[in-house]
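Q: Predict the assembly, please.
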Amino acid sequence: MVDFLQALVDGVMLGATYALLGLGFTLIFGVLRRLNLAFGPTILVGIYAGSHVGLAWPGALAAVMAVTVAAAILAGIYVERCSFRALSRQAPVVSMISTFAVWMQLQELVSLFAASRTMPYPSPAWLPAVAAGPILLRSDALLMWSGATAIMLALFVLLYRTRFGTAVRAVADSSEAATLMGVNVAAVGAAAFLVASAVGGLAGVLIAQSQQQVTPYFGLWATVKGLTAMLLGGAGSLSGAVVGGVILGVVETQTLWHFGGQWRDLAAYALLFLVVALSPRARGEPSL
Amino acid sequence: MLEVRDVVTSYGMIQALKGVSLAAREGEVTCILGPNGAGKTTLLYTIAGILRPRSGSITFEGRELAGTPAPDVVGRGISLVPENRLVFPQMSVHENLLAGAYVRLGRDRARVESDLEAMFARFPLLKQRAGQAAGTLSGGEQQMLAVARALMARPRLLMMDEPSLGLAPMIVEQIFQIVETLNREGITILLVEQNARMALSVAHRAYLLEQGRIAFHGTPSEVSANEAISRAYLGIKGG
Amino acid sequence: MSDYVVSLLVRIGVEAFVALSAYLLLVIGRISFGQQAFFVIGGYAAGISTALYGAPLPIGIIVGALAAGLAAALFAGAMARAGGIYFAAGSLARGELARVALLSFHHQVPVGADLTGPAGADGFRGIRALFTSGMSVTAYMVAIWGLLALTFLAIALLLRSRWGEAIRMVGEDETAAAAVGVRVGRVAGLTMVGAGALAGMGGGLFAHYATYLEPGHADVMLGVHSLAYAFIGGLGTPLGPIIGVAFDIGLLESFRFLAGYRMIIFGGLVMALLVLRPRGLLDEVTVHRVTRRLAGRRA
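A: Predicted assembly structure:
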């Protein structure tokens, strides 16, 4: 029972970062109706940049985080320009294919500048672990959860309480009607992309400080987590993406506890596969 | 107030508007009649800045409008109630109205709030449904929401595209009452309608658009007096 | 012919099968990032049948293709009607699922003095049927290209047949295809099975050339590259994906000074091409124009 609860708590904490990735995916997909498969690799660029700063100036945690987010945003701008703005007149599927071409580039780019495949990432070591009865809250997990929750709250305020948020949700709901209301759809799309990249970079900081290392595989990993969280939540729903992320986190940690490490990824991919195969929307969706 | 002169709009190779000229006078209701595919929606979309005219000029309050991007057109005081309503289906009624005020949401939030109250007073039904997702409203309720949403931008010219489409006769009656009320309050209205009889009953001036050209224009009584037009659009047997 | 050229040609030939596999799915309007799953399934099955159970090499390749086709049938059964991003996401999951599953797949049996067979993360070593058969690597390369030529012809003929008509219609518009009596589910499903078998054949051929396979061969980059090959070559002809492979591996990889930048350059080329020619170099219109001109000259 304690094991189950511990895994549940760990899952919720991990899931909070998956929720962030899912929100980034949903923002871009919702507003542009296009899938950004290079979302994970843009975060990868951020984390590698942060890792370099961490190696050069040990202890400069704030600088590491700032550089991580900034580099993720820069990579995001690159993706937006090349795969979305330049292709806005083409079918959405062309953008999706272009994003994996960018993905190849970003993945090779980080390996070019990295001394080894696995790069270290600093973690705030001074934070203590907290014990709540028999449940242990590791400091890095606690940081993931509290950081992700704060970012989500800020994001929801931005989307539900500001003029920009009204525009974003209006475009996501009906871009034609939004145009009629005087919304500059292209500009809102680019801005939403920027916000999503920043959210992705922040999620990258939280995840990397918990894992304390990063490999080029992180790009695919983050894309799959975000995609799963988004699709679990119903593709396009913001609160759905949060729920989807938490479900994914809990499924992973429960599998880890009960069956062992090698089953964890298997369960995550099987979950994505099941969502896609069983989703009622999969059938009705017009060819993207 | 609005002057459209020799406007040509094409979709690729196909000319949808082949040199259309018309005028909407301040304080009047101007209606555009015509069969399906005549180019009525294209004309409204061209004025709204969603489509760019290939040639011709559009002036609004004396200033050129052709080529102005859609967001700026709304800012200059022209709102469109689109065909089939196009409400934001996932957003609540309240959020739809806020989205309607998008162009002035940043600078006069206080007036937006008071306009919102006024809109709820004008359409009590929308107030009852304020928190409901717009996609769950009935067709007539959605049409009212679409009108209210367009009014939230405080337009001086309101364009309406087929507001009676697919609605029960009683609701159509209500919609046209709203059109008359708005016009009496000083809003200039450009109305595209299939329901010619209803449209002519509220209009001061009517244009007939056929195959991308203005085929006829005049006052409602002149339109009714024209035997061919009456037979085609009003269903009145000649003789 | 130098060993290097032979090895290059083998790689081009093998990856062309996976690219053709991705191409067939593009023709029915589906984006797959997961054809590498069928590549490794075919490779493992072919390797198991020759190395563990002593099947001759050609039988092994056939078994590999059949196994991959069966796996593709199971997948198609789960998502035959799913389209758009759902199919793409499902294929991504499938590819990774295959890789992760192979990490814990152990099936070793004693062959002679050694234990042979898939050994989880350590991979599957000792697939030696090619070398014990006495066939030279050059002859094997020629055989691969012969098979590839046959496959190309078969696909080209298929796409011109009534079936091909149906396949194209499904790719254009499923509702319209169904409206004129095309059995969309069946056409899409069978195409997916055929595409899976093709990738599996590539896997079997590769496994016997390399003598080993490992879960890492199901890396997502193989699937992503195959899709890119199919796309940049063009949707107009099955020659497109083969040109795509030859261009990337033959040209970019053989320039040694590009070694570290290959994916950056290739990715950039794909991106540029998508802006300029969103349906690939040899799109339907170009292919049609060229065929008409050739036909005109002959007449």
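The longest helix of chain B spans residues 169-184. The CA atoms of residues 84 and 165 of chain B lie 7 Å apart.
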